[in-house]
Structures are given as C-alpha cells and as structure tokens.
Automatic annotation (TrEMBL):
One of its GO terms (molecular function) is 5'-3' RNA exonuclease activity. The lineage of its organism: Bacteria, Pseudomonadati, Pseudomonadota, Gammaproteobacteria, Enterobacterales. This is Error-prone DNA polymerase. Signal peptide: none annotated. Pfam families: PHP (PF02811). Residues 14-81 form the Polymerase/histidinol phosphatase N-terminal domain.
Amino acid sequence: MVLANSPESRPVLFDLHSHSQASDGLLTPEALVARAVMRGVSTLAITDHDTLAGIVPARQAIVAQALPLTLVAGVEISTLWEHHEIHIVGLQVETTSPALVDFLALQSQRRDARAVEMGQRLARARIEGALEGAQRLAQGAQLTRGHFARYLVERGYATRCSDVFKHFLARGKTGYVPPLWGGMAEAVAAIHAAGGVAVLAHPGRYRLSAKWLKRLLTAFCAAGGDALEVAQCQQAPHERHQLALLARQFSLLASQGSDFHQPTPYLDLGRALSLPDGVTPVWAHWALAPQAPQPGASLLEAL
C-alpha cells in the first residue's frame, strides 16, 4: 500500500501501539511523532495508558512541523479477566467522547488509589518516598508502575526497570498491589461509544497456555472486541503465525504495533512490523489522509 504524501511516494508503515510522556513513555508527544517519521513510520497511533492527553500536542506538532505522518488517536485501557490484567487498545477514537472521557477519569482514579497503596507498601519495606518520587517523574502525567520503577532505579535499588518489576512490583513482591480495573466489556463499550476499534493488545505477554488464550479470545469476542494485535517487535515468527491463525479463527481484524516506550537496541518505532498473509488489517477500511510536508520544513526542529 502506498500513499503519496511527499515528492516521492513512500510505503505505508503502520505502528499502532506507542506511548509518550502522557503516560509512561520516555519521549514527549512532539518528539514521539518526530521519531516516528525518522523511523519511516507513516501511520502512528499514540496509545497512552488510560489517557488521551498526548493526542492534541502530537497533532499540533505534526501540523507545525508539516510532518508526513498520519496520527491515529488511541488509548490503552487496563482491564481484568480471570485475575489476569488484560490490556485493550482503542484505535480511531473520538477524543471528546463523553463516554470515553468519563471512563478514563474513572481509570485515573483507580490508578491513583493503587499508586497510594503501592507507595505505602514500599514505605513499610523501608523504601521511602516512592509515591512522591513516582509523581515527580510523571510530571503530572498518568501515574503508572513504570514511574515507580524509574524512581527505584534512580535510588539505586536496581539497574534496570525490568529488574524493579521482577523484584519489587510483580505479583507476590513487596510493592505489588492487585489492580482495581473493570472488565473487558466495560472498556470495549467505552471505545465503541467513541467510535473506535477495540484491539486485544500483546496477547503473547499474558503467559497463557494455548487453551487459556483461546478462552481469553472467546471472552474478548463476547465483550464485543474487534481486533487482535498480531505483530509486535520482539516476537518469534511462529508466534506471529499462530496469532494470525487465531485472528482468522475468531474472525478478528489484525493489528500491529511496537508498544514503544523508549528506544532500545531491540525495540523501536516501526521495527519488524508486518502482518502475515491471510488476515484483514485493522486499517483496511480507514480513510487515512496524511498531511503533505511543506517546503523547507525541518524534522530536526521537532527532535
């Protein structure tokens, strides 16, 4: 698929799962869209955790810099199913939808309550100031466990955020607090009320057996889900093939996304993203209209 959005037509590369500083991403929305163009992405969805706060500044940056990028308004919503935390990405949502805005306000309250208890549990383990440190790092953005992880790395309790999750924030560890999320149907309904498409995110990360993954997909479809995230960056070829088979089996559209938070040697915007043959892309019927760059516009100004 090719869209003419510059003097030379460029292949369309979709990355439909990314995060900015509006939640737990490293880059500002402005820097995120600039990096997407630098990485060759033509269509980017910003899908911050339970917030739409990054969409408007990203749109403004695209216009101001005349970037050759189509922005898809999105959000990643946390839910609970059978004691598993399941993430559902909403794509092509209307950001002013009252139903979605109200639902995300409730999600934010749930996050704040969980964060307070997380800080208390860490304090009882003699890790002081974790809540305040996480809030400082969030800088007013949606507070996530990622901010707690960054604070503990900053304080020297670990060298990597992944180690913080493993030793402090995972189930059964000192700072773990059970999530307070609602069910999948609640999230899907809010996405649909905003005119969006509901995508089951990164299904390979839930550590489910094949039998339980099919149970999850059955429940997701029963909740009104529309699509499955089939292609991700760090993924074995057989996993992508198996997810494509499941998308066809459950009559789900297929999505792809990097789940970008920050650049690493193995994960970046647009990296290794393509759908196997035989699936219907989630964007198949979208009307996409990327903006043509103006002469003299500089991508570097946005980096």
